[in-house]
Write a structure and sequence with these properties.
The protein contains two helices and 30 strands. It has about 350 residues and is mainly beta. A five-stranded mixed β-sheet has the order 1-30-29-28-27, with no helix packed on it. It has a five-stranded mixed β-sheet with strand order 14-18-17-16-15, with no helix packed on it.
């Protein structure tokens, strides 16, 4: 079975005028010298943006925020907990954050200050499959999806949804092949769950307020996905799915699992095949964070950025886009932002 779609429509050999203009604009980005954030954190491994356009990052030191002028380390919040992921929740009951930890999931109210109200959920007080929570995502329908070492739980309002996907995805699957990333569809009622070794699982909120399972997306089926080691998932506003693996990125469109797949690797222009983070900017360009730098895809051509172009590090761990369209890039050596052709470095 061929791994790559060789349809001429997706080949990178002939650039359109749009692609040529894109490359010309991005060819020589301006680099702003490092700004001292005053906090000795280096590894920025998760990011989110709140309603006030403040940027929030998880680091090895804890939660760090940036309001455009000042960087703040929130030392008193979640102190002593092993932090895994963060998601902003603009819910109907107020705004706040969900934080995945090794000892459960915590809801932290905004603004995050010392003494901010919080609620923690674990197997002791909630229908959560495991206290070892690795990922959290909030859907547009206000369902909070919680990825654990034993599978996915979900909270809608104050109700934990019943789980009925055990026959398709028993807990041992996720223990053997751990969850690495999650993303919802545009409606927020279906979840794509990336795993290390078993491809992508899909679950959805069913009509009886439960979670059901759909078919698995894996290389060992008749599907063109580069690898079953999937480390990042991104769903565009148009519903197209992107799966970053250790052997390139796969794109899937439409509703038929077996059709409409494209694969992009270094052969097609990707800077590095180990894709750890994916997002899309306000212009519809896809950003791929890899272990070897950044690739930006306009639908026709890739433009690549590395330390030589202004990145703090080629090891990109997370990506997010703020409300002004600025792309934020978390690495293992600080943060970069990219706006109007300019990289700004924060360390």
């Amino acid at each position: 079975m061929g791994k790559k779609n060789t349809n001429p429509k997706i080949m990178i050999s002939a650039y359109s005028l749009l692609a040529a203009a894109f490359i010309a604009l991005a060819n020589n980005p301006v680099v702003v010298k490092p700004n001292d954030i005053g906090i000795p954190a280096k590894k920025f491994f998760a990011a989110t943006v709140d309603n006030n356009n403040n940027k929030w990052f998880l680091t090895e030191l804890g939660i760090i925020s940036f309001n455009g002028d000042k960087w703040t380390l929130h030392e008193d919040n979640m102190k002593g907990k092993e932090l895994r992921d963060i998601a902003f929740d603009a819910g109907t009951e107020g705004t706040g954050f969900w934080i995945a930890t090794a000892s459960g999931i915590t809801s932290l109210s905004a603004p995050v200050e010392s003494g901010s109200a919080s609620s923690s959920f674990s197997t002791d007080n909630a229908s959560i499959l495991s206290n070892n929570v690795v990922r959290v995502v909030v859907g547009n329908n206000k369902v909070t999806w919680v990825g654990t070492e034993k599978g996915v739980s979900a909270l809608e309002g104050n109700k934990w949804l019943d789980i009925s996907y055990d026959d398709l995805y028993p807990a041992v699957i996720f223990q053997e092949y751990p969850i690495t990333s999650m993303a919802t569809n545009p409606a927020g009622d279906s979840l794509y769950v990336a795993t290390k070794g078993a491809g992508v699982a899909r679950v959805f909120k069913n009509e009886v307020d439960g979670i059901s399972g759909a078919s698995v997306i894996a290389m060992w089926g008749p599907i063109i996905i580069p690898s079953d080691n999937v480390f990042s998932v991104h769903v565009e506003k148009n519903g197209a799915r992107w799966f970053g693996t250790d052997m390139g990125v796969g794109q899937h469109t439409g509703n038929n699992t077996l059709e409409n797949w494209n694969v992009y690797t270094t052969a097609e222009g990707l800077v590095n095949d180990y894709v750890q983070a994916i997002t899309s900017d306000n212009n519809g360009h896809l950003w791929f964070g890899t272990q070897g730098g950044i690739s930006v895809f306009d639908g026709t051509a890739f433009k690549n950025f590395t330390k030589d172009n202004g990145l703090n590090s080629n090891n990109v761990l997370c990506l997010t886009v703020d409300k002004n369209g600025v792309v934020w890039i978390g690495t293992d050596d600080g943060v970069n932002s990219f706006s109007n052709g300019t990289f700004t470095s924060y360390r």
